[in-house]
Amino acid sequence: MLPKFSYIRPDKLDQAVAQIQAGNAAIHAGGTDLLGCLRERIIKSEKIVSISGLEKLRGVRETVEGGLRIGALTTITGMAEDPLVRKKYPGLAMAASEVASPQLRNQGTLGGNLCQKPRCWYYRGEFHCLRKGGNQCYAIEGENQFHAIFGHDNICVITHPSDTAPVLSALGAKVQVIGPGGGRNIAVADLHVPPRDDVRAETVLDQGEIITHVDIPPPPAGLYTSYRKVRARRSWDFALAGAALALVMDGDRVVRASIVFSGAAPVPWRSREAEQALAGNTLSDDTIDKVCRAATAGAKPLRENRYKVPMFRGMLEEELRKARLQEKA
Fold first, then answer.
1. What gap in Å lies between CA 179 and CA 177, rounded to an integer?
2. Which of 31, 150, 159, 302 has its Cβ near the most Cβ atoms within 10 Å?
3. pLDDT at 35
4. Is 178 in contact with 206 (CB distance < 8 Å)?
5. By C-alpha distance, which of 34, 113, 111, 98 is closest to 72?
6. β-pairing, 25-28 with 47-50?
7. List of domains in the chain
8. Does 235 have pLDDT greater than 70?
């Protein structure tokens, strides 16, 4: 049963900021994650501030520079099917199409997908874990077959649930934020908080701040993007392992590479070792082998998720081979 709360639906963005700034308030957009969190008492809020009526925060448009600005209230389906997204950044369209189920993609928003809460069954359950203010992460010694192999520092081993965040991070996108102190830009790569910095925070957003848009820089010549998601079921499941690729190609040579994993760490996990092994080289079998080994060299799997190491390797190998075929076509 949902707890009691007041519901406010402001007509203007500054009104929404003022309502959220007052404290003990939660933002409602698509509501696909919020309602479950309220029901499970993960979020305790006496006031729900709906921004769903702020139409200026919807839609995809091309910027003067040739990039894209996507409103935070744009639905995941809207983003997956948008002609500009599919043309300029097909990897982002792929990622959006892989989110949850069709019903949730129709309702869920880009802002919500970036800011959703972790899916760990201890965090979502009745356990007073470290992330909820307790004194331990139960998954470290418990059931951890779906948990992190990177970036957990043996503090909290959740995996970040977003499919769009890895691609946006790889593309160098930024979120536009408005709050009590005015507006600011935050790189998507810096939006999420690793456990070593603050185990109870998911993002760097302050109380009262709202993501309004996501800005993606213009695609450079030779940009190749893709997103691959491996999961236990075809739909309605989160990534066991996923990879976002943003490769800048010059013929058959990789000039610059961004590789960001999903299902790997408490935040979207950028594999700089793999990027360094790939940049400046062709997508030969030897290079691909080196890249895949570099990508998992720093993994720290848990007792029940060691299978993820070869899974990430194999998935990345397949995606790089697809990129090679695409460039030859």
1. 7
2. 159
3. 83
4. no
5. 111
6. parallel
7. 55-115+159-216 (3.30.465.10), 223-328 (3.30.390.50)
8. no
